[in-house]
Write a structure and sequence with these properties.
7-stranded parallel sheet; 8 helices; disordered N terminus
């Protein structure tokens, strides 16, 4: 009987554990970092990185089993990791997340808004439910996390740093227009509140990944993945640590004079080629 192996997208736990950062190992010692969507992909790589750099890390997501599976090898490697279940679409769940984090390890100093999701489909065929699901998670959920963190820091008279994971939206992305709309909204919010919140000592920035190979690629066809791979002049995928290092740069002392910015990590993709998340229409061939 033939078996079909599921292809691996993203980095294995062994690769995550072996990674050596460009930053010093105690950069975030004494700091607590909250990462949404920390059970897989970009969020899991960020958790490994911040943990390896001395931080206490809280990974949040909707499934405890996935969070615990992600945290187990981190803990085995001596990292300080806590798992908290939360649904960022629900404001009550977000409030409970910050309450639980404060009880366990204290109010986080840094928030990495990584949780999100989308599905490839022609925009003309979006259902109301499908559109709202992406907007609620990627835009409304991110905003709920941002506002809640800012209020907690303000009320505690403490500074804070927010890094939002978005995407490259300048030219649009055929096949995932819903996430482009949501991520563009996050970028706009970030620029606005970066000014409003600096009196509280709160910095807000974004990281915009391009062709980064993660587990999220499982929803795309082979054709779409090849299109994505060739969407930048390096003609290859980046990996999750390319994004995690950008988060560390913006969230840490190296970013102390940076707010309201979007750091693009796309191998030059904005200057090159195209990407189709759905089959490319014959009209453009």
């Amino acid at each position: 009987m033939e078996t079909t192996e599921t292809p691996q997208f993203g980095l294995s736990d062994e690769e995550l554990a072996a990674y050596e950062s460009v930053f010093r190992s105690d950069l975030f010692a004494g700091r607590t970092v909250l990462i949404t969507g920390g059970g897989s992909g970009l969020g899991k790589a960020a958790a490994w990185l911040f943990g390896r750099l001395g931080a206490t890390v809280i990974i949040a997501g909707r499934r405890l089993d996935r969070l615990e599976a992600a945290a187990a090898p981190m803990k085995a490697n001596g990292l300080r990791v806590e798992c908290c279940v939360a649904n960022i679409r629900e404001r009550e769940s977000v409030q409970a997340l910050f309450d639980e984090a404060a009880i366990r390890v204290g109010l986080p100093h840094i928030l990495i808004n990584n949780a999100g999701g989308q599905f490839p489909q022609a925009a003309i065929d979006y259902s109301v439910k499908g559109w709202n699901a992406v907007i609620d998670t990627n835009l409304n959920g991110t905003w709920g996390m941002m506002q809640t963190a800012a209020r907690r820091w303000r009320d505690a008279d403490l500074p804070g740093s927010i890094v939002n994971i978005v995407t490259v939206v300048e030219r649009g992305m055929p096949g995932v227009a819903h996430t482009c709309a949501a991520r563009a909204g996050v970028i706009g919010i970030s620029k606005s509140v970066a000014v409003e919140w600096i009196p509280y000592g709160i910095r807000v920035n974004c990281v915009a990944p391009g062709a980064i190979m993660t587990e999220g690629h499982v929803v795309y066809s082979d054709e779409a993945r090849e299109s994505y791979k060739r969407s930048n002049p390096m003609l290859r995928f980046g990996d999750a640590f390319d994004v995690a290092e950008a988060c560390a740069y913006l969230a840490g002392p190296s970013g102390k004079f940076i707010t309201g910015e979007t750091l693009t990590v796309d191998g030059g993709g904005r200057l090159w080629g195209e990407f189709w998340a759905i089959p490319k229409p014959d009209y453009f061939k």
